[in-house]
Amino acid sequence: MNSNSSQPKGHEPVALITGTSSGFGLLTALTLARLGYKIVATMRDLERRDELIQQAEQAGVLERMHLLALDVTDEASVAAAVQATLELTGRIDVLVNNAGLAVGGFVEEVDMEAWRRQMETNFFGLIAVTKAVLPVMRAQRSGLIINVSSVSGLTGFPGYAPYAASKFAVEGFSESLRQEMLSYGVRVVIVEPGSFRTPIWSKGIAGIHNPEGSPYRARLEEVLRYSRRSAETAPDPQQVADLIGRITAKRAPRLRYPVGKGSRMLMIGKALLPWKVLEGIISRSLRAMK
Prior knowledge:
The protein is α/β, with parallel strands linked by helices. The protein is 50% helix and 13% strand.
């Protein structure tokens, strides 16, 4: 492991990661395992573990992997997974809150059940796992919590209000938590990916409700074309896993780490430009996909 790591010396550091069946979670598990971490890789359905096991075996890190079932929307499942982690490893040095889903559609046409499912997974689930781990890290007086947010947690886009709302909530939660935990040696970081080649967007796009006769149909088609084009040209998600690996080696990581094509420019644009200007840029980008 990197000699500059802020993890305590004299033990094998432990990383608990949610949502490791695919995407950022799977790649982060492999990356941290290669950096010398003992990985507790969790996922809602362990029947989806084959891809992680296969890649871990190919990378020569399978012996560093412990797979557990964890449904972030089920408090009993969260408590059981954290308890099992402590029984396996005795400590938790890094928590990566990665589990999530994307709900899309125009606000009027997204049913309340879908809104609640979005928030339960991306926000309340993240809080539940964090709350279960905090007593461990506080007692250790050390730990790192990495919350995987999104550029959608900085700027909302039409057609993805549920997803943006959940990620905006993660941003505010993380800001407060970071200040609460500083004096206990626990650091809180937000990683804010732009568009990357991960299954979350293909699943999200496939699930968007776009009924015939909808007054929003033409606008939503623009959003979907833009989303599909972005997915086709999106960079390798390994960039995000590599960033998370670098963050774990920092003694004093900053709060926010935007990553991906245009993510930093979007952050700067929102800070400096009047909202009407930024709104116009987004609107023109969507129309350009016709």
